[in-house]
User: Fold this.
Amino acid sequence: MKPQTQDSQIKDILTQSKIIAVVGLSTDPDRPSYEVAAFMQEKGYRIVPVRPGGEEILGQKSYASLKDIPFEIDIVDIFRKPEHIPAVVDEAIAKKAKVVWMQLGLSHEAARKKAEGAGLQVVEDRCLVIEYRKHF
Assistant:
């Protein structure tokens, strides 16, 4: 059974974070990743699209991978299938991100343990928008 991130921890994460790299951010406004990123951007967070192809999304330059981002990241928000999560977590650790956030429906025990072992906070199976609305 996976440990649950406490609500107080989530509120702290959302309060202290400013830059969110969204891995798997779609260019389609009807996709959940786009909706979440647009909402968080409206709330004042800097959104950094991470998606191969280099298209600009939500007015922000897109990067092929976390390692290509030339500045620090607070939250790595994952919108990828579970089999891709370990590689994203490895990049998040290398990037020295503070938080790995696996969106609603996503979790990966081995990746969570690895991220926590490297000192990152981990949130699994939760939506940034739902959590933001709950706390603010």
Remarks:
- The helical segments are 7-16, 32-42, 85-95, 109-117, 128-135.
- The chain has a mean pLDDT of 95.
- The domain at 7-135 is CATH 3.40.50.720 (Rossmann fold).
